[in-house]
Amino acid sequence: MSANTLAISANKNAVSIDISGGYLRYHDSTEVTVAGLDMHIPAGQWTCILGRSGCGKSSLLRYLANLLDNKVDWAGELSTQPQCDIKDNIAYMAQQDLLMPWLSVLDNVMLSTQFGGADYQTKKTHIQFDKAHSLLQKVGLADKSNYLPQQLSGGMRQRVALARTLMQDKPIVLMDEPFSALDAVTRYRLQNLAYQLLQDKTVVFITHDPQEAIRLANRLYIMQGKPAYAESLLVPASVTPRDFDAECAELQRTIMARLDQDYE
Q1: Does residue 163 belong to any structural domain of this protein?
Q2: For residue 149, is the peptide bond before it cis, meaning its omega torsion is within 30 degrees of 0?
Q3: CA separation (Å) from 172 to 5, 17, 163, 166?
Q4: H/E run at residue 153
Q5: Same domain, residue pair 129 and 251
Q6: Residue range 88-106, pLDDT digits in tens
Q7: pTM
Q8: Nearest Cα to Cα of residue 208 among 35, 53, 43
């Protein structure tokens, strides 16, 4: 077991997810999106999911995030360890930053606290402000707290979105291609930052980029086929985020071959 696996497995509050025989179909479609899906998402680790566009990756994530109520039929077993109501333990970070343009950076980070009822309006106010400022400092935007989103670069906006996700302090974090629109250098830096800040979380990370998945994954799945199923691939034993070496390059070739088969 690697040193970083020992560190993340020490988090007693982490939650694992197991899916067995997962089936998902949208009500307005005759085609089944996912069938026979078996997946183990380890507690306190990064599970990366690859697959072609439209294969069902985002649908799976949105279902886990409780965003598809009354839109899909779902069958199969979905369980957590320890047992919990999954919808109350998830934070979701989408591909778009989804920042509110009329709110400051600080207010965007604190957006989730607005739904905390009277408790937010009284004794927790100062605690929440302190926490939000601390998170902005961690993502390197403490001096931009009063800016509006339109005054920020794309990389800065995604750092705000990351801080907003962390503000929710949920044990499970779902990330749907959060860095795909960024340039290579900014993407690399945000991969490292996200990995550092989310070390105590159970992360499910969707990406189209094999290199990104290989750098970050403790567990790696490819979703393919119609309807889609998940194939698990072994990842290198090296510590994440990984430097790209010959073993990573060989895994990338394997991934590309699998994805290429799915287009035939």
Answers
A1: yes
A2: no
A3: 17, 9, 15, 10
A4: none
A5: no
A6: 899 999 888 999 999 999 9
A7: 0.89
A8: 53
